[in-house]
Every structure is written in structure tokens, then in C-alpha cells.
Amino acid sequence: MTTPVERLQAALETLGLKAVEARLENLLEEAAKKEPSYADFLQDLLSCEVEVRRTRYLRARLQLAHFPFVKTFEQFDFGFQPSIDERQIRELRSLRFIHDASNVIFLGPPGVGKTHLSIALAEAAIRSGLGAYFITAHDLAGDLGRAYREGRLDRRMRVYLAPKLLVIDEVGYLPLDDLGTTIFFQLVSARYERGSIILTSNKSYADWGSIFGDSIIATAILDRLLHHSTTINIRGESYRLKDRRKAGLVPPRAQEAAGAPPSLATDSVPPRTRHKTALGSTASAAKEASF
Hints:
By secondary structure, the protein is α/β, with parallel strands linked by helices. The chain has 14 helices and five strands. The N and C termini lie far apart (81 Å).
């Protein structure tokens, strides 16, 4: 004949409440000592299951986000990058920009923390129940380019349209070909005022024509990105090289020695446009739509 505890364990196993089942005996012992109310005991019983499931859910969502590494705000050394306004970062941490379908653009040389802050914001979004996805600009163009050539661009594009937040890293590190430029334009247009983009680049806005091989399309992309956006310029040294620089193994940047420009962003913002092209259009069609 089974005991009440054994029957309870069997019921928990049937219901799939494995976390409760694993802690049942400890919880019963604590309850015998503290004599909580039935409601408090039930709350303690179910809370452990809720916490385990939440942890499992977050772990799965973080894996699906394809982060190259995990970075948090607590790990970021704001003292090393004094050009960053911490109040501005705190405002972004509220994630209001995601609810407003606004964009965040980090500009700066390599190693100053653009990707770190982008991942930290995306992780915070996931922990708040918002979807996020991370990809480099080069990988994005390659993935969607293959999908276009295989006739499945619409279906693959939905992967990048579904998340509330899309992080596109390293825009400008490698130039895009005509197809990559057109697809990038299509994605930005499709997410315009519908979903947020965090974008990192080592190029000023004035240089984006060289990234996309066409100043007209670059202007059209910037028009949509900058309409609702926050631009953060980081004008510091590479954090990855700080120890080697202190040891004299890495010379100071030439641009710092000569006097770096005050900002990567330009003061001019391209005029707004409401025209958009259909998915799978050619580069020439994208240029026409930018007018």
C-alpha cells in the first residue's frame, strides 16, 4: 500500500511537475517546522516549479538569439569609456525604445564596446519577455542571399522580421554586393516602425555609401533607420588592447595622436521617404524607391 507522499509524487510525475517532485520531501519537512498556511505552502510548492521553468525558458530563448557570447551591463567598464553617457544607457535599459519600435545605432572604432552593449540590451529584452535575434551584417546578407537564389526569401525573411529586437552587428566591416545591399534595404524597410533594430558600425554615416556601394540606397537605408533612433558615438580606446597598450606593446592610435574627429555621425539626416520596394526586387528598383 502506497503512502500519501508516494501518491503525491506519482501525481506530480504525471503532471510533469519535476521540480516540485524533486523538492517535495524538503518542502514537507520545512512545512512541518514552520506550519505555514495552506496557501503559503502551495505557493512555495509551485514557486520552485515556476522558477525552474522560467530558467529553462530563458536559456532556450538566449540560445535561439544566437549571441556569440554573453555580456551584461554589470560587466561593462563605463569608466574606461567616458564618452558614453550612462544616463542614456540607463534610458535604453528601460527598453522603451523597443515598445516604440525605435532603433539604436552604436558607432565607433573596434573594441570600444558596441557589441557588448548591444548584446546586453538584447539579453535584457529577452529576460523581459521580448524576442531578440543577433547576426552580423555579413552573415545576414549571405543568409538572405542564399534564400533569394533558392526562391525562399519570403520565408527566410520572416526569421528576421519576427523578433521585437534585431541586432545587426559589424555593419561596414565588409562591403556588401548588389544583392546584399538590396536585401538589407528590404529588411530595414520591412521593420520600419514595426520592430526595433540595434546596429553597430565602425563607419560614419557619411561613409555608408561605400558600405552599400551606392549612396542613394545608403541614404534610403539611413532615412528609415534614423527617423526613430538613438545614435551613440563611442570615442575611446579598444578595451581588448588596454593591457597591451599600457605595457607599450601597442602604439597609440594615429587618429588619437592627430586629434580624432568629435563624432562618427554626421549632422545631416536624409529626408524621409515612405516608398518601399517588394521583397526580391533588384538593386535598381531599390534605388528608384528611395526617391
